[in-house]
Design brief:
This protein is α/β, with parallel strands linked by helices and about 350 residues long. About 35% of the residues lie in helices and about 25% in strands.
Length: about 350
């Protein structure tokens, strides 16, 4: 049986909207219908490129009966208002990371979707990579024994021109934060997704290599998880490299160790090995989006969107709903609060 095609709209046509458009073209029975941008020139250019209709107003986008799901691709601190409008119009939502930049705004989005009976799907595409899925599975199966030590490292680079390219970049109101909230959130989300609830955190922040921004370009800290594991964390946009350096997650325990570089498992060793373990090990490559956000592969977005589509068809919550999307935001905000208190540990 062939499923009815679902129509998509995009609200906001910046860099990240390109990933949604490219991903949707590869998904059977999904069709990108129209897009809206508050700057008509940018919206028209995007729509012409992807051969879709340009919605001159948000109302025009939301009144289009062919659109079932709206991808919200606006600035991070401008997700709430579009999400509320979509929910009120009865449109399902796929919302880019972060869900929002404060917990009350995250809560409002989830509550509005629940009240309207629409599906809310978060876009955290690195959860869908083969390496990340294999690592999560090994943790769930207890193959690491007692997990003791972990780390998240995001040694990325953003030029001054990147921050200067849009007035909202580097602002607390619309970016929500810097190296952690904007660039590091994918890796931080993976860490908390794999290791579970957090007990307490400590962090320090700084702005050392960029001008005229309100947010951090470097952050370091530590996390203590409820399961007893300790993790170090370091994220920055100050590490220049010719080809970009991969984001890294390390998981170590009493019976196993793993290193994930972007989505490639370069170490996957256990006291009790399995024949398939060696097949999961890959060669390290340059960082995905480490120097240029446009260089990230849209395939992760494709898998993420496919799961949201399945949730809409089955009328059930996707694996990344409002509650799950909120978790990384809560953790990052806790790290920020500790840093504001001169690194004093903060209990969660």
């Amino acid at each position: 049986m062939i499923s009815k095609s679902l129509g998509f709209g995009i609200w906001g046509t910046g860099i990240i909207a390109e990933f949604h458009a490219l991903a949707l073209k590869q998904i059977p029975n999904a069709k990108l219908i129209a897009a809206y941008n508050r700057t008509p020139e940018k919206g028209l250019q995007f729509c012409q490129k992807h051969q879709i209709s340009f919605a001159e107003t948000p109302e025009a986008l939301l009144k289009n009966p062919a659109i079932d799901i709206v991808c919200i691709c606006t600035a991070s601190g401008n997700h709430l208002e579009p999400a509320l409008a979509c929910a009120q119009a009865g449109k399902h939502i796929a919302i880019e990371k972060p869900l929002e930049v404060t917990l009350p705004r995250c809560n409002q989005i989830t509550q509005a979707c629940n009240q309207a009976g629409v599906i809310l799907g978060g876009i955290l595409p690195r959860r869908f990579g083969h390496g990340a899925v294999a690592l999560k599975k090994a943790i769930q199966e207890g193959r690491f024994g007692q997990i003791t030590l972990a780390s998240a490292l995001i040694p990325w680079w953003r030029s001054q021109e990147y921050y200067d390219s849009a007035a909202w970049r580097g602002t607390k109101k619309l970016d929500g934060g810097g190296a952690l909230m904007n660039q590091g959130i994918h890796t931080i989300d993976l860490l908390q997704w794999m290791l579970g609830p957090v007990k307490r955190v400590s962090a320090t922040l700084g702005t050392v290599a960029h001008k005229n921004i309100e947010v951090e370009d470097i952050a370091t800290g530590w996390i203590e998880f409820n399961n007893g594991a300790r993790a170090t964390i370091a994220g920055t946009t100050t590490c220049w490299s010719q080809n970009g350096l991969p984001a890294e997650i390390r998981i170590h325990g009493t019976t196993g160790s793993a290193i994930l570089l972007d989505d490639k498992l370069v170490t996957f060793e256990f006291k009790e090995s399995q024949p398939s373990d060696k097949n999961l090990i890959s060669q390290a490559t340059q960082g995905a989006g480490a120097n240029d956000p446009r260089a990230i592969d849209y395939i992760w977005h494709k898998t993420n969107l496919e799961e949201i589509i399945h949730a809409v068809r089955e009328n059930k919550k996707p694996s990344i709903d409002g509650v799950e999307g909120r978790k990384a935001v809560e953790l990052i905000l806790a790290l920020y609060q500790s840093a504001q208190n001169n690194g004093v540990p903060l209990n969660l």
